[in-house]
Design goal:
The protein is of the alpha/beta class. The chain is 31% helix and 22% strand. It is built from 20 helices and 30 strands. Strands 12-11-8-6-7-14-15-23 form an eight-stranded mixed β-sheet, with helices on both faces. Strands 5-4-17-16-18-19-20 form a seven-stranded mixed β-sheet, sandwiched between helices. The longest helix has 17 residues, at 115-131. It is globular. Bound molecules: adenosine-5'-monophosphate-propyl ester. Adenosine-5'-monophosphate-propyl ester binds at residues 299, 345-346, 421-424, 446-451, 472, 533-535, 547, 549-550.
């Protein structure tokens, strides 16, 4: 089944932006051979206060032997992001079009925002930032829940050329402090708090802690702007009160009352709604250069110190816009929903910038898939008649556990394209998504990319690419992937190796904030002349690319290179298995051996028989060398709040080392003890 090829629905292909593999190949070829012509044509859709010239359109050095690494697109051009995303759309007659539907944690909380209103709110908040002394180039930290003020805050930064650094609202105060110190943030924007499911998170208190830590280290964040979010909820603290359901950013008028109590520093803190009352509704955009910084987004690094990935203006805009249009095949009138938190790159590019650059209508969802019931995703798709739905394999797998009945309760017939991102999707999850959510008629875009790449780099196009479950398929326009062996030799045809890129595309990162040296050594030193993703991939006989996982998750058993993802995919194919994670464990003879954590489906038991079946399956599917040494029961896995499995911790559990290090980024710290207790005795 998994080896079958799934062709795009002919109805979808007929009207798609890219209708066939022939069209894809010819566009890809043009994008590689004539990048100036290809991207120059796309750039014409946007407004440039100053144009670029053809000879300066694209320049780069990817080879450390030739000097420092640099990537420049559209040098000489000036523009403004918020102008292109808002003013331009309003001027084209789309002022009354919905930019965002907002769906709160509680189904009784919802609201919407038109392009006209989004522009006005953005201008007003840009004026608030100016009143706090924020100028072009200053860094603004944002630590917010998934509320409409979050995109407003980001766009307001772009209005005045300030650089935003959004920190995911689930990070601890230490992580927030570390990031604010690294980028020397001038202002912090947050909210009083947020409910995630039934759990209340008091964000402002976390900010207070973080601000104190920053101060203790000699840096001072001058202002903290706080959205009064909790007090405008329909059902705050479980009490039913009337919600504020007007159009626009909701609750800007009823905040400021007494509950819940929030600690306050009068010299530093202010309420968003109070500042907005005074703010002028228009703000002339600051024209910035094509390569001026747009945002910093921190991602974890192997050394433990987070890396401030820096993206710039013009290239990011055209790449976010183009990937969104082609990968989701977005058409005017469609409603699109990406479940990612804006605190991650997926939220930056595919909740905020890509959709707005296409004048799209999308859903922003504050809650979780499991609240108030385990069918929340399906009910939101039904409610807003969603056409494109973009989510993560981990979410799909956790929802699969509840069976198909919950999906069937809802009308999902509007769906055309399903997207997956964040990790390799195992064929079981792919097929469930395809058959039960997409009813066998939607294309699945398994989009491979990274915080660093800015947008999709390897992905199917829904109307063109015949799909293979689990394969991210082929490169997007402008992207030239290669597979390299251990010695840096290019692998032609079928094979497995390090996934690298030979040329820059417009949306890729330009540097690590304040540390160009680390940028060069992290990404360009391993293989000179290539950007190194840190992922492994294989190419099959048909040329399809299969991203197998981080190289650091690769393992070598008796000289056989294999990926943990490969083994996980086999384990999760078993009907009794909901999820699995595989790590390597040192082995005196084989070098490394496989240690597998397995979460059974609801109602299934973890038995000796299941362990034997799984071992046999791996032996059968991959080879006798891949037979796992240990299969351990895992009622849950240690995941970050964004759903990434922390393999570092699993490796410690595998070797019985209680010294697991920092667990503060885990969604559930308790699982670590449970897993230690369940370790099979040798
Ligand atoms: O290992 C790859 C995996 O996620 C990494 C990037 O993580 P991050 O920067 O947090 O960005 C996630 C959202 C873009 C990659 O190096 N990854 C992401 N998407 C896929 C994937 N692995 C396989 N298939 C994917 N579709």
């Amino acid at each position: 089944m998994a080896d079958r090829i799934y062709n795009p629905n002919p109805e979808l292909a007929k009207n798609a932006h890219c209708k066939s593999m022939e069209q894809y190949r010819s566009m890809h070829e043009k994008s590689i051979e004539y990048p100036e012509a290809f991207w120059g044509e796309i750039a014409k859709q946007f407004y440039w206060e100053t144009p670029t010239s053809n000879d300066k359109f694209f320049s780069y050095n990817f080879d450390l032997n030739q000097g420092d690494i640099y990537i420049k697109w559209m040098e000489g051009a000036t523009t403004n992001l918020s102008f292109n995303l808002l003013d331009k759309n309003v001027k084209c007659g789309n002022g009354d079009k919905i930019a965002f539907y907002w769906e709160g944690n509680d189904p009784d909380d919802y609201s919407k925002l038109t392009y006209k209103k989004l522009l006005q709110e953005t201008c007003m908040f840009a004026n608030v930032l100016k009143s706090k002394g924020v100028q072009k180039g200053d860094r603004v930290a944002i630590y917010m829940p998934m509320i409409l003020e979050l995109p407003v805050a980001m766009l307001a930064c772009t209005r005045i050329g300030a650089v935003h650094s959004v920190v995911f609202g689930g990070y601890s105060s230490d992580s927030l402090a570390e990031r604010m110190m690294d980028c020397k943030a001038k202002v912090l924007i947050t909210a009083d708090g947020v409910y995630r499911g039934e759990k209340l998170l008091l964000l402002k208190n976390i900010c207070d802690d973080a601000l104190a830590k920053v101060k203790a280290h000699g840096h001072e964040v001058e202002s903290c702007v706080v959205v009064a979010h909790l007090r405008r909820l329909a059902n705050p603290h479980g009490k039913t009160t009337a919600g504020d359901k007007k159009n626009g950013v909701n609750g800007t008028s009823n905040g400021g009352s007494s509950e819940p109590s929030v600690s306050w520093d009068d010299d530093r803190d202010c309420w968003w709604h109070e500042e907005m009352e005074e703010a002028e509704p228009s703000c002339y955009p600051v024209w910035v250069a094509a390569e001026d910084p747009l945002f910093i987004l921190y991602t974890s690094g192997s050394t433990g110190k987070p890396k401030g990935v820096l993206h710039t203006t013009a290239g990011y805009l055209i790449y976010a816009a183009t990937t969104f249009k082609y990968v989701f095949d977005y058409k005017p009138g469609d409603t699109y929903w990406c479940t990612a938190d804006i605190g991650w790159i997926t939220g930056h590019t595919y909740v905020v910038y890509g959709p707005l650059a296409n004048c799209a209508t999308s859903v922003i969802f504050e809650g979780t898939p499991f609240y108030p019931h385990n069918d929340r995703y399906w009910s939101v798709i039904d409610k807003y008649k969603v056409n494109q739905f973009y989510t993560a394999p981990t979410a799909i797998r956790s929802l699969m556990k509840f069976g198909d009945e919950l999906v069937k309760k809802h009308d999902l017939s509007t769906l055309k394209v399903l997207g997956s991102v964040g990790e390799p999707i195992n064929s079981e999850a792919w097929l469930w998504f395809y058959n039960h959510v997409g009813h066998g008629k939607c294309s699945i875009a398994d989009t491979f990319w990274q915080t660093e790449t800015g947008g999709h780099v390897i992905t199917p196009l829904p109307g063109a690419t015949p799909m293979k479950p689990g394969s991210a398929t082929f490169p997007f326009f402008g992207v030239l992937p290669e597979l390299l062996d251990e010695d840096g030799r290019v692998i032609e045809g079928e094979g497995e190796g390090y996934l690298v890129f030979r040329k820059p595309w417009p949306g890729m990162m330009r540097s690590l904030y304040g540390n160009h040296e680390r940028f060069q050594t992290t990404y360009f030193d391993r293989f000179h002349g290539f950007y190194c993703t840190g992922d492994g991939a294989k190419r099959d006989a048909d040329g399809y690319l299969w991203v197998t996982g981080r190289i650091d998750d690769m393992l070598n058993v008796s000289g056989h290179l294999m990926s943990t993802a490969e083994v996980e995919s086999v384990l999760t194919e078993h009907q009794d298995v909901a999820e699995s994670a595989v790590v390597s464990k040192p082995h005196p003879v084989k070098g490394q051996c496989l240690y597998c954590f397995v979460t059974p489906n609801e109602g299934r038991t973890f038995s000796k028989q299941l362990q034997d079946e799984l071992k046999r399956k791996v032996r059968e599917k991959i080879g006798p060398f891949a037979q796992p040494d240990v299969i351990q029961h895992a009622p849950g896995l240690p995941k970050t709040r964004s759903g990434k499995i922390m393999r570092r911790i699993l490796r410690k559990i595998a070797i019985g080392d209680r010294n697991v290090g920092d667990v503060s980024t885990l969604a559930d710290e308790g699982i670590v003890d449970v897993l230690f207790q369940l370790r099979p005795q040798a």
